[in-house]
Design goal:
Elements (H helix, E strand, L loop, with lengths): L1 H30 L21 H9 L2 H32 L5 H13 L6 H11 L5 H25 L3 H9 L4 H30 L2 H6 L8 H9 L7 H29 L8
Helix pairs in contact: 1-11, 2-11, 3-6, 3-8, 3-10, 4-6, 6-8, 7-8, 8-11, 10-11
Main location: membrane
Subcellular location: Cell membrane
Family: Belongs to the binding-protein-dependent transport system permease family.
Length: about 280
Amino acid sequence: MPTFKKILFNLFAWSIVLAVAFPLFWMLVTSVKPGFELFRRPPTILPETWTFEHYWKLLSETNFLIYFRNSIILSTATTLVVVAVATLGAFSLVRFKYRGRESLAFLVLFTYLLPSVVLIIPLYLLLVGLGVSNTIFSLVIAYTTFALPYALWLLRSFMAGIPEDLESAALCDGATRMGAFRDVILPQLLPGIISTALFTFILSWNEYLYALVLVNSDASRPLTTGVMNMLISSFNIEWSLLMAASVMMSVPLIIVFAFLQSYLTRGFGAGGVKG
């Protein structure tokens, strides 16, 4: 009976995996199918003729590389800003005692619960007033507004799990407050920082609404709005190019997650070990 339950559980688990993975598989297969095979009836799972012409056309005849560069700059800059500010903010909320500290923490969480669309008009007016509208920098500011509250709350939880005795011992040994933060707190906080960075990067990479409203120049568009504007119109959808673009848009996220996953699993127990 236990064996039957195990087999049943494995079948259920693999069914879920296949259901989730099939759209990704179909996207990859469609991107290497010739155009005349896309609408063949009945459809074929694997292409009869494999081709990479869609990737070549995407890279050589469109602005995909410009959008790709913009997304890399945008997501990286947003991640650096959010992680830096959230780390220092979490340190303040956990280690320093001042009036209204808990109220401030809940206020930060409350701002994350606000719908993103509520902030678009105030943000747009602010960016126009600052003279940075329709630029990548304007999107960095906009993305920080909704990524920072969650990142700060997440790092606050990680920071609260670090024993104060470690920091006190460093201060007793002559370390400064910033020295103890750099040498004691940051190594213990590394799993939380990596988790926050991963969340922020994915959020920035996939964001669509703010990029659609705040940027209308090809020189500053990220991938999400650039690909839509380039390949989707009221009369036609370039399915082959769209699937090729979707595959290439997924590659950075897969690489980032694969690279950071080892650090995440290796750092899960780091906070409970005192060197």
